[in-house]
Amino acid sequence: MLPQEQIKSIKRVSIVSYLLSLGVEPVKYSGVQLVYFSPKHTENTPSFFVHPDKNVFHDYTTDERGDILRLVCYLTGCTFPKAVEILQKFEPISQPPTLSFSGQKAEPTGKGSKLIITDVRPLENRALLNYVEDRCIPPLLAKKYLREVDYKLGRRRTFALGFENDKGGFEVRNKYMKHPIATSPKWITTFPVANSNTINLFEGFFDFLSCCACFELTEPRNTTVILNSTVNLRHVLDSLKNYKQANVYFDNDDAGRRAKQIVADTGIKIFDGSKYYPNHKDFNDMLMAQIGACG
């Protein structure tokens, strides 16, 4: 059991700094408190309050409240000892949080909001690396294919993983996103391999990285296309005539099955990669289950 003085020291870790390390930033002030969109639930009106001086939080969506240790348990679902371990290793971010608001009115990040990338850099952020490791992707592999991006969505500013497509747009992900988002233009990502007679097709970049991790590859052996959405399959169909075989790694759902049939209808020989994950939604789900949710 840790001494009380050590527990008191851990409880002094700033909640504001911890949330910032997760890519969660305040949208406005309410008196002396900072107000956030809940990092735990999707909401249109921010209802997650932090009192920086008292270093406590209150999530009004669930009425959950407490200190930094309680917050770590709440967001990660971990035990108290694990929360202590996480905070002992925590390194605060020196960058102060950016309040993205006009007056006191918060803007929800609805469908009308435009995602704008404000900076792109090599992937180094510890919170983002923890996220890819949670998805069972080796950090060195993630650093090869992913970037760390700052972005603005409505009046919210934060950072996330970025996966670039062939037209310079980005697929954007972090741990607290409820739904995938992307910049414009939304397009495919291609990794060409000279003299390749086979083309690999993936729905998303986590499935591509999971396949690489599973087979201990750092680069694909065949020309590889990540669709970044099955909607983009139409942009690939004409090029299939240049290959003898398509290795298809689509999701085990209706959209994935429809996409696979569309590829098969072109007449190209198909290898159905979903045989590697017959009891899982996709390659990443299988990898996480196989490795035991990566700790």
CATH class label of the largest domain: Alpha Beta
Write down the overall mean pLDDT.
Answer: 86
Count of individual beta strands: 15
What order do the strands of the largest sheet run in, or round the barrel if closed?
A: 1-2-3-4-5
Contiguous runs where pLDDT drops below 50 for at least 5 residues: 98-112
> What sort of overall outline do the alpha carbons produce when their principal axes are compared?
elongated
Number of domains: 3
Tell me the fraction of residues in β-strands, as a range: 15-25%
Radius of gyration: 21 Å
* Helix-residue proportion: 25-40%
Number of helices: 9
Describe the biggest sheet? 5 strands, antiparallel
CATH topology category name of the largest domain: Dna Topoisomerase Vi A Subunit, Chain: A, domain 2
Class per helix and strand makeup: alpha+beta
The N- and C-terminal alpha carbons lie at a distance of 23 Å
CATH architecture label of the largest domain: 3-Layer(aba) Sandwich
What does this structure look like?
- The protein has 295 residues and is of the alpha+beta class.
- Helix 3 (68-76) crosses helix 4 (80-88).
- A hairpin with a 4-residue loop joins strand 3 (48-51) and strand 4 (56-59).
- It contains 9 helices and 15 strands.
- It has helices at 4-11, 15-21, 68-76, 80-88, 126-134, 139-145, 205-214, 254-264, 283-291; strands at residues 28-30, 33-36, 48-51, 56-59, 64-66, 115-122, 147-153, 156-164, 170-173, 181-182, 189-191, 198-202, 223-226, 245-249, 269-272.
- The strands form 3 sheets. It has a 5-stranded antiparallel sheet, covered by helices on one side. A 5-stranded antiparallel sheet has the order 6-7-8-9-10. It has a 5-stranded mixed sheet with strand order 11-13-12-14-15.
- The chain folds into 3 domains: 4-88, DNA Primase, Chain A (Alpha-Beta Complex), CATH 3.90.580; 115-182, no CATH class; 189-291, Dna Topoisomerase Vi A Subunit, Chain: A, domain 2.
- Helix content is 27%, strand content 23%.
